[in-house]
Amino acid sequence: MKTIRNIVIAGLTVLAISLSVNASAASTILHRNATVNADTAIAPAESIPYFPAIYFKTDRYSIDKVQEWKIENIACYMEEYPETVLLVKGWTDSKGTEEGNERLSQLRADEVKERLVRSGVDSWRIIAIGMGEAVIGSEASASRRAESEILSR
User: Fold this and answer.
1) 47, 30 in Cβ contact below 8 A?
2) d(Cα 109, Cα 100) in Å, to the nearest integer?
3) What per-residue confidence (pLDDT) applies to 93?
4) Backbone phi, then psi, for 129, in 5-degree steps?
5) Which residues have a Cβ under 8 Å from the Cβ of 147 and sit 6 or more positions away?
6) CB-based burial label for 19 (10 Å; 0-12, 13-18, 19+)
7) Distances (CA, A) of 80 to 75, 77, 95, 111
8) C-alpha dist (Å) from residue 106 to 16, 31, 50
9) Confidence at residue 46, expressed as pLDDT on a 0 to 100 scale
10) How many CB atoms lie within 10 A of CB 45?
11) Distance between CA atoms of 37 and 7, rounded to whole angstroms?
């Protein structure tokens, strides 16, 4: 299922595109006091940079050395554009309980945020949200990830 919606977070608008949105993801967004506003205009997708997903091992939220270049990439971009606000979304695979997966997905998003803060990015510029579980295709490892997207520049 593909869901496209405009979400307003802290007065900023982001286009959220999810391949699967479950109840835990929806409650997470609502818990963060986000509101859906279908009338808000969005910057064209081609003007927003793409950051590769950061992948995690099963039941882990620590970032492997192999993934560190992705954090460095984002930190460099954030340094170059000091007014940028970033949304980091953590995901899990379908293993484990729903409650455990929600907690793990939040820990993954928080870990990415913490690493960016340690790299010099102000914490107020990063919103970290755990999205719970989302299985992509037949490969569970693709679901164990954190994605980053620009909210504003």
Assistant:
1) no
2) 14
3) 87
4) -130, 130
5) 51, 53, 54, 88, 89, 91
6) exposed
7) 9, 5, 38, 22
8) 17, 13, 21
9) 45
10) 9
11) 6
Q: Furthest-apart CA pair in the chain: how many Å?
A: 42
Query: What's the CA gap between 148 and 138, in Å, rounded?
Result: 23
Q: Of 108, 101, 99, 100, whose CA–CA distance to 62 is shortest?
A: 108
Output the pTM of the full model: 0.66
Q: How confident is the model at residue 138 (pLDDT cuts 50, 70, 90)?
A: low
Q: Crossing angle for the helix pair 98-118 and 23-31, nearest 10 degrees? A: 50
What is the tens place of the pLDDT at every residue in 10-68?
444 343 333 233 333 333 322 233 333 333 334 444 456 889 999 999 999 999 999 99
Q: What is the pLDDT of residues 81-94, one digit of tens each?
A: 999 999 999 999 88
Q: Is 59 left (phi over 0), alpha (psi -120 to 50) or beta?
A: left
Q: Which two tokens stand for residue 33?
A: 């006091």
pLDDT given at position 101: 92
